[in-house]
Design brief:
The chain has 10 helices and 13 strands. It is α/β, with parallel strands linked by helices.
């Protein structure tokens, strides 16, 4: 009896991929860091995704990365269990239409029942790209998320999972391949292009935030996440200009729609006084020195009370006190 109650009272997160688009190492990067990852001198990280469960059996993915096949094979909790065709993955909630967050949907074909949840903006992108029709609508439903309206996704068979999601708008940028140079200063970005998620066990109230892409920290967002037991936050770059100074790109983090970790406008300063129990950087670009455990930047970030996500990281969120 007590075991059953314990199982029902959980909220568990599995980091499937801690890296940003490109992964670590990135296929065409000849940087020292990527070469160290190739040699196994530092841990490789796959692209941006987490899995969550509130019952220990059925999981929802937040984002579907191009590395999803490897991620599903790396995590026994996500292996098929019943009959000849089965998956503990009941569906996917998308936070934007970036390649690193949607390309993995293509791997989830094979007539497997699934529910996909996304904003209208992201669903429109899926609809416009007919390759996603490999997800046969007889098996895969596409469901619209409404900002600020919590939703409780089920298994494709209609069974409740006790997981509750709420999506909220965060500052960001439209996906790279959708940028409209002739539009406004933010390339045609509108609300719904980038969202953060509040994920909860509907029965117990345990919750955390997942915000893998965020361009700035308006007061309203700071207020929303303050006091949270756990926040996964955009850790793309350590310094805004690092891709340029390292000669590995020509864009700043700001241009790409990402706050950086360091600096007066950075994430560490912005979240310092928000009384968040556990802060974890995720969606970390391969140019970011925090991926190297022996780097100066890694020590600075850890001293500031931040953790760095890694593939296979598993977290159980504590039940709030009665
Ligand atoms: C981003 O997070 O900025 C994008 O995933 C970049 C990309 O499309 O490669
Ligand atoms: Mn990305």
């Amino acid at each position: 009896m007590s075991v059953l109650i314990w199982i029902a009272n959980l909220l568990r997160v599995l980091v499937l991929g801690a890296a940003a688009g490109g992964g670590f190492p990135q296929w065409n990067s000849n940087s020292d860091a990527c070469n160290r990852a190739r040699k196994g001198d530092v841990a490789s990280q796959t692209q941006s995704s987490i899995a969550v469960t509130a019952n220990g059996r059925n999981w929802y993915l937040c984002n579907a990365s191009p590395d999803i096949r490897q991620q599903l094979n790396n995590n026994p909790a996500l292996y098929p269990r019943e009959g000849m065709r089965h998956s503990p993955v009941s569906g996917v909630v998308l936070t934007n239409a970036d390649v690193d967050h949607i390309a993995g949907l293509l791997t989830l074909r094979e007539s497997q029942p699934l529910n996909i949840f996304a904003t209208k903006r992201v669903l429109t992108t899926l609809k416009k790209n007919s390759i996603f029709d490999v997800l046969n609508p007889d098996f895969v439903s596409r469901n619209e998320i409404f900002l600020g309206h919590p939703f409780v996704p089920k298994t494709p068979e209609g069974i409740s999972l006790d997981l509750e999601f709420e999506a909220f708008s965060v500052p960001g940028k439209i996906a790279l391949y959708l940028e409209d140079e002739s539009a406004d200063s933010n390339f045609g970005t509108v609300e719904g292009d980038t969202v953060g998620l509040r994920i909860a066990n509907q029965l117990t109230g345990q919750y955390f935030f997942y915000i893998p892409g965020c361009a700035s920290m308006p007061k309203q967002l700071a207020k929303r996440i303050s006091g949270a037991p756990l926040v996964f936050f955009d850790g793309t770059l350590y310094e805004d200009a690092e891709m340029i100074t390292r000669k590995e790109g020509h864009k700043t983090g700001n241009r790409m729609g990402h706050m950086s970790m360091s600096g007066p406008d950075g994430v560490i300063v912005a979240l310092k006084e928000l009384n968040i129990t556990r802060k974890i950087f995720i969606h970390i670009n391969n140019t970011n020195p925090v991926l190297l455990e022996d780097s100066r930047e890694r020590k600075i970030v850890e001293r500031a009370d931040w953790e760095i996500a890694y593939d296979g990281m598993e977290i159980s969120i504590e039940k709030p006190p009665e």
